[in-house]
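Sequence of DUF1972 domain-containing protein (Hufsiella arboris).
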Amino acid sequence: MKIAIIGSRGYPYVYSGYETFVKEVAERFVSQGIEVHVYCHKNLFDSFPKIVNGVHLHYVPTIEKKSLSQLVHSFLSFTHALFKSYDVWLVVNAANGPLGIIPKLMGIKTMINVDGLEWLRPKWKGLGAKYFHFAAKMSTRLYDLIITDADEMRKVYLDEFGKDSKVIAYGAPTVKDSDETLLSKWGLMNQEYYLIVGRLIPDNNADLIVKGFLKHPSSKKLVIVGDVPYADEYADGLKKLKSENLIFPGYITDNTELITLFKHCFVYIHGHKYGGTNPTMLYAMACNCAIMALNTPFNREMLDNKFGTFFDENQQAVTDAMTLLEKDNDLVSHLRSHVSEGLTEKYNWDSVAQSYINEMNKLLSNNKTAVLPEEK
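Predicted 3D structure, token representation.
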């Protein structure tokens, strides 16, 4: 079988959930004898090898403008892919929904991972939000298979667009050892800080959490890992908040440093509002963190309603949740001890990759020329 993966920033470049997904599944596809071609944003790479770890790479240019970069890149990638005789196109990002008309007209088998609810996110107001809603709708009309990453996201697509989907989650990372001595870099001590990890954007609710924390009379610190790669009023406003208990390390690219921050935090706080299976939450679960999460259907599904505590979307709820946790050490210890039980087979990368292969097999069941790995 020969497949194309289109719509991410590329491989082995890892920036966000899509790139992590592409890296994890592409390598597993190759190990099962599938010929994998990944389309990469040329401007993000300094060198351009044709094959890395058995994955074939195609470097496609784009327009360096936030609102158009991905769409232009995908259009050019789709055009290139038309001439490569792929058996299946695996597309990520619902923004590519309307482009599905291209392979559909050519009779090419396609599947699309639509990810989250982009049309509801504050950064896409007005025309942007309307486009993402339209694009998601077109995804359900133009692709052979829609893939959602959570049962709750499947419900959204059923309710919003009347289209069923196949649920395949993301996998949890393999976590290596931490180094507690690294905490001194930020003046931290084991279990004496709360942790937030994520982009500083409104729908991740860092402002809500920070302000709720500042209302809470705690001796602990709050570490906010992440930023945005552009000038932004929201992110700048957060970083201007003054308190000796607030620490903004920015982006942390060293894996050992990040694992250390996760493993030694008092509680990891997850304020992400939109989306299905969240890679950062999986990271926290794999690091055996006690988790305090925004009360959303997606977060409740990931934590199975029992592997974390939940807070409503207001500052007082954040303060109250922190007060409860700091008064109940047994609860925090219980959460740490049991959270990894939530990492079922659903969140295992081997199972995730095999599920994609199984769905490709089904799409190609009438294509006798494709060589399909056997289902497990």
